[in-house]
Design a protein that fits this description.
Layout (H helix, E strand, L loop, with lengths): L5 E2 L11 H18 L6 E9 L2 E8 L6 E5 L5 E6 L4
Antiparallel strand pairs: 1-5, 2-3, 3-4, 4-5
Keywords: Signal
Amino acid sequence: MKPVLSIMILVACGACAGSSETDLQASCEALVAAETGTRPGDVRALSTDTEPGGSVTTVSVTGAQAPWLCRADPSGVVTGVEYSQEG
């Protein structure tokens, strides 16, 4: 079993609604691009889902077999990114 890649970074971006959701998605795209060493143009936020403990933004990376997940707390602070597929 391959370990899940994860980074813990704090990025403030406010509550996750409206333009703040756009800010969160942009932060997630930048963090995933940095983690994967991918050009920013090859990374795209697909959706953001709100959960009781915060939100999860699904991020597509060109050439990746599965999306990346970007997690944020309820205030919109990104707490980490991880690849969604094991192995």
